Amino acid sequence: VDGALSQLSVRPGYQFLVDAAGQPVDVREATLFSAYRLWLDGRKAELQTTLDTLKREGGINSVRVLMSLGGEFWEGHGTDPKEPGYFGNLVPFARFLAGNGFYWHLGMFGSVEHFGTGPAVHRGDVVSDHPDIVQRMHQYVNQTVDTLDKEPNIIWQIANEPNHIGFGSDSQGIIDLGIEARRILSLSGWDD
pLDDT tens string for the chain (192 positions)? Predict the structure, then answer.
């Protein structure tokens, strides 16, 4: 990706992401689930080296980063929306990626533990019957989207493998979170 990154959108019945002119964009993605942890820990040089390598050796122009990573598996690598600097660093991180020619495939929910579920050991449905948790998740989506709604390099994803991180088979809960995100983005002028 040379120059400024264009906001991407989807067209019904079309299998590619398109730029503002409606032209398909070749998005080549690498997964860096805990890259935001590196950023929050001040490990920018390490992150820069990784991005440079991905671009040079793989032609990568998008990184998939999961947010709100919690639980035993992510110990030391996770991110908690309640930690100091979490929301204040979202825009600088997005602009760092964009400045390096990368889209940010942002998975808002990498896990659900930070929203009050406790350890989701068996990763069943620990969300649906808990309106307080659902409310906190909606607040998180609102704050995340409201913080990043002016950044054109974001590829939005609500949840990574939702049935494995505590949503169970509650598709409606994820759909509702997506509708909320889309509503906020549409107020900011984002297309689909």
Answer: 345 788 888 877 888 888 888 888 889 999 998 899 999 999 999 999 999 999 999 999 999 998 887 777 777 777 888 899 999 999 999 999 999 999 999 998 887 777 776 665 555 677 777 788 888 888 999 999 999 999 989 998 888 887 777 777 767 887 888 888 887 887 766 655
**Which tokens sit at 42?**
């001040």
Distance in angstroms (rounded) separating the CA atoms of residues 77 and 79: 7
| Two structure tokens written together for 10 | 């989807």
Q: Is 106 left (phi over 0), alpha (psi -120 to 50) or beta?
A: beta
| Whole-prediction pTM | 0.87
- Nearest to residue 192, comparing CAs of 156, 151, 160? 156
